[in-house]
Amino acid sequence: MSSHSRKGPGVSVPPTFIFAAAFAFGAWWDARKAWPIHTGSLAEWLAVAGVVSVTFGIILFAAGMTTFARARTGILLQRPATRVVATGPYRWSRNPMYVGFAAIYAGACLLMNMVWPLLLLPVVIIATNRLVIAREERYMRETFTTAYQTYSQRVPRWL
Fold this sequence. Notes:
The protein is mainly α. The protein has a domain at 54-76 and 83-159. The chain has helices at 3-7, 15-32, 41-71, 96-112, 115-154. Helix 2 (15-32) runs parallel beside helix 4 and helix 2 runs antiparallel to helix 5. The radius of gyration is 17 Å and the shape is elongated. The two termini are 30 Å apart.
């Protein structure tokens, strides 16, 4: 195991910061120039969809954390991974915690009926791919070579 692999992927920008900063900026913009997704009776259904999405995201994020904890591998990005985890939600997504973040983010936009932060979600996903996931995947390929390559060919990055 190289010294690189003992340190973890060493992501310099925490993914929670990317999601939170974009949402905060979108909410700030919405406070200045409100642009609701919808008004009237549909707004109530958007709130329900928002609650469902936030709940799904929290459950998915918690399942990802729990799966990592049970596998006794690095949960934090500064900690080394001890194995390729392919159980729980990692059977169908290499990044279920980020999928959970995205569901929480989108659900909060629906719940709060705000377009501006929702328009930033694609930027958040691109930034997460480039600043976080690319580095994590490079680390996993260097550390677990064949096992990670086999896993990544079988399981998609997001969904």
